[in-house]
Design goal:
GO terms for molecular function: FAD binding; oxidoreductase activity. The chain contains eleven helices and eleven strands. Helix content is 35%, strand content 24%. It has two domains: 136 residues, Uridine Diphospho-n-acetylenolpyruvylglucosamine Reductase, domain 3 (2-Layer Sandwich), CATH 3.30.465; 109 residues, 2-Layer Sandwich (Enolase-like, domain 1), CATH 3.30.390.50.
Length: 251
């Protein structure tokens, strides 16, 4: 709708899904340790309550979206349909290895996050398909989201990051937003950290290791210069965000 309002797109038909209650529901499956969120569940629902308790990084990202009015209307389905690298929820979905559930003329299909976003505002939706819901795991460990913008609120991300640490499995994942044509999963930095130190319960790291992790994360970013920032500043931002998130995850 933003692009329509800015005269970037002029679709012949617009379908309002607001009254499709199934898309505005969410569920928690304790036996599977997963949360499934309907594509039309607004960010205002994710900010607090049970979803925030189960998926705190998603709640943190939701709180950074626009104003209260925008959070009352904005949804994960909107972020996924737009597929902007600056979408606040998308690094969280990437770091959590989300599964996207689609419905279309040919039936239903499930797509892992890494196959969904194809480029700047490009996704794997076929003609007639729409996002029904999104499933993410409930991770037994720390997770966090942070972003940098030109001001402290109501701002599109200059750079963003989500880090998830599974303390039981000793695993870590980190994904970056606004520093490439898609959300960037920093797999090389993840592998390096896992080889370098233990991330299980009780693990500790030193400052030098956190700085090196940030540098390696920054190396995987592919930012550009644009009207919001420079590529160099974006690289600096994600390095600092990665350092801070890693330190917080082990505090």
């Amino acid at each position: 709708m933003v692009e329509v309002n800015l005269h970037g797109r002029q679709p012949q038909t617009v379908v309002n899904l607001r009254r499709v209650e199934e898309l505005r529901e969410w569920s928690y499956r304790p036996t599977q340790q997963t949360v499934t969120i309907g594509s039309a569940v607004p960010y205002s629902v994710m900010e607090t309550g049970k979803i925030a308790e189960l998926v705190p990084a998603l709640a943190q990202a939701a709180r950074t979206v626009g104003s209260p009015q925008i959070r009352a209307a904005g949804t994960l389905g909107g972020n996924l349909g737009t597929c902007s690298p600056a979408g606040d929820s998308l690094p969280v979905l990437s770091a959590l290895n989300a599964v996207i559930h689609l419905i279309g003329p040919q039936g239903t299909r499930d797509i892992p996050w890494e196959e969904f976003m194809l480029g700047v505002k490009k996704n794997a939706l076929n003609s007639g398909e729409f996002v029904h819901s999104i499933t993410v795991p409930v991770v037994q460990g720390w997770q966090g989201y942070a972003k940098v913008g030109t001001r402290n609120a109501m701002v599109i991300a200059t750079a963003s990051a989500c880090l998830v640490r599974d303390a039981d499995e000793g695993l870590i994942s980190i994904a970056l937003g606004s520093v490439g044509p898609t959300i960037i999963r920093c797999s090389q930095a993840e592998k390096w950290l896992l080889k370098t130190t233990s991330l299980r319960v009780g693990a500790q790291i030193n400052a030098d290791l956190a700085v090196e992790f940030g540098r390696r994360v920054s190396d995987e970013a592919t930012p550009i210069d644009d009207h919001r920032s420079t590529a160099a500043y974006r690289r600096h931002c994600v390095a600092i965000l990665a350092q801070r998130l890693l330190v917080r995850s082990l505090a």
